[in-house]
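Check this:
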Amino acid sequence: MTIHMSIGYLLLYLPLLVAVSLVIGASRHEQKHLILDQAVRTAVWISSFMLGIYLVLQIVSWLV
């Protein structure tokens, strides 16, 4: 069994990722370049975490 994700969910993920990353960056810094740097690092961290969860669920679904 394989876990499938529609492209619609990915299209909803991107604006949410950008918004959350920018809010976190803006709540920590006041200068634009620091906000953008923090936003990029936060987006990478969130995406890596979500990919890790997806991989764990994928492996579990293969074992069942």
User: Anything to note?
Assistant: The radius of gyration is 15 Å.
